[in-house]
Amino acid sequence: MTEVAAFTSSIRSIVTDHCSPGPWRPGSTDDDRLPELRKHLGSAGWFDLGEDPQALPFLGPAAVELGRGLAALHELDALLGGSPYVSGMTRYAEPGDRAIVPARDGLRVAHIAAVQPVPYGDSIAAGRARIDGGELLDPTDAGRREAAWVTATVGYLAGLTAEALRLALEHTTTRQAFGGTLAGLDSVQQRLADAALCADGLLLLAEGSPDLDALAYAGPAACAAVAECHQVVGAIGYTLEFPLQRYSRRARAIHLWADAWIEARS
Fold this sequence. Notes:
The protein has helices at about 5-20, 35-45, 55-70, 75-80, 140-170, 185-205, 210-235, 245-265; strands at about 85, 90, 100-105, 105-115, 125-135, 175, 180. By secondary structure, it is an alpha+beta fold.
């Protein structure tokens, strides 16, 4: 087993044992952070990877496991060094915390003066924030932080998509329709194949060194793949009791924040 595979396996075990996405309700301002998960990720060395540019090959595959388990995005933002601040919004942030502000000339670090929680479509403790100051990060430091965060985000999207596909396959292979299983229908097979193509592409992307262009592709690709999964699962997939909706909500949230980040950097 390679070092990357061994580290990924350890993260998989941590996610299995300590990651349990909580309930979400429309209009909520929920926060899905789990202290036990963070503690064990820290012990495994997850947060140290953001300090070493040579560790990028570990980040993508390990983040796939975080995406499969829908771990809090806070664990990715820690690699950035603070909450991403885009369109006046932060996530998982409180007054006094650091915000990382993307700009054309690089990344700035600022302190959050105030946060007003807002209802959001996912449990990421989103809020409208006011920041004070803003110091331009050293280009080398900024590049290292952003590369780690982007790599982990792409890996997370890959894992999220793979798990959504697994849920769709499980559902369609156990449901009967027209004398066979749902998975036996040509139209369902086509949609599953399209979703699988996206999932495989994202997994390959996560194993490389994804940049902002890769992130710009990964968000829409994940959303499209999960949408195909919803099509074959049907109405039950949108209910709060069925887990697929968690993956579609998280994919959209990541896509929106990533797009805003990329726009600010361009």
